[in-house]
Amino acid sequence: MDIPLNVDVFCSNEQVCGRSVCIILNPVTKEITHFVVRTKEMIHLEYLVPVEFIVESTPHKILLRCSRHQLAQFRSFTHVEYLDPVDVDYEHLPTMYEPGGLGMWPYGVDNDYISAVPVEDIPHGELGVHRGAHVEARDGRIGRVDEFLVNPENSHITHLVLREGHLWGQKDVTIPISEIDRIADDVVYLKLDKQTIAQMPGISIKRWWR
User: Fold this and answer.
1) Contact 96, 128 (CB under 8 A)
2) 3-state DSSP call for residue 68?
3) How many other β-carbons are positioned within 10 Å of the β-carbon of residue 24?
4) CB within 8 A of 167, min separation 6: which ones?
5) Per DSSP, what are the bridge partners of residue 168?
6) What residues does CATH 2.30.30.240 cover in the chain?
7) CB neighbours of 76 closer than 8 A, spacing ≥ 6?
8) Which element (helix H / strand E) includes 81?
9) What does each C-alpha distance from 181 to 107, 156, 159, 175, 188 come to in angstroms?
């Protein structure tokens, strides 16, 4: 079963209820426990959906056995923390101004503002992997995560679909789980080197502008 990222997610009434944006997995067992659905409303909401709610999955869509109302009952994936920029040690945070305030980086007319920082609520002991997460071979970066293939009986990952190459010469390479060394936050480390991966057969990626 595919669990593709950045594809439309359909609820039980076959209406599009959002898009898949992240996979949540146990890094020890390499079991996928949830995936994240981002709604398509003007103000996006993101929900943690257990993989048990997937009825059907293809490289182009995911069908759920829940309604849009039931989707909204799942645990939210993100929350917003408000920080005083004076108290933090880093810059370039998204900024929320009080009414009447005006700011232009790096200057501001009103200093009474706070920074709104979205934070992902990943379950304890698990990791989130987004589409485009880096894939590292033994001798350096080789490509990005395209999707995962899982065993539908136990939700364990069987293969990683690696998007290898540059924009005009990309291909998908299927990497068996046995060749994955470990998975960290948005980084997948392989046991293989670049030369070995380059020699593996792949499927050319078809782009809409071709």
Assistant:
1) no
2) helix
3) 22
4) none
5) none
6) 2-71, 132-204
7) 45, 46, 47, 48, 121
8) strand 78-83
9) 46, 15, 13, 11, 8
> CA 204, CA 155: separation in Å to the nearest integer?
27
**Reading across the β-sheet that carries 113-120, which strands appear in turn?**
78-83, 113-120, 95-97
The two tokens of residue 8 are 């439309």
Topology, domain 2-71? SH3 type barrels. (2.30.30)
Q: What is the DSSP letter of 74?
A: S
pLDDT in tens, the chain (210 residues): 788 899 999 999 888 999 999 999 998 888 999 999 999 887 789 999 999 999 999 888 999 999 999 999 999 998 877 776 555 554 544 444 444 444 444 444 455 556 777 788 888 889 999 988 999 999 999 999 988 898 888 889 999 988 876 544 577 889 999 999 999 888 999 999 999 998 887 655 443 322
CATH homologous superfamily for the domain 132-204 = PRC-barrel domain (2.30.30.240)
Contacts of 180 (CB under 8 A, 6+ apart): 30, 157, 160, 188, 189, 190, 191
Tokens of 104: 């232009």
Residue with tokens 């869509």: 61
Looking at residue 55, its amino acid is V
The strand pair at 78-83 and 203-204 is best described as unpaired
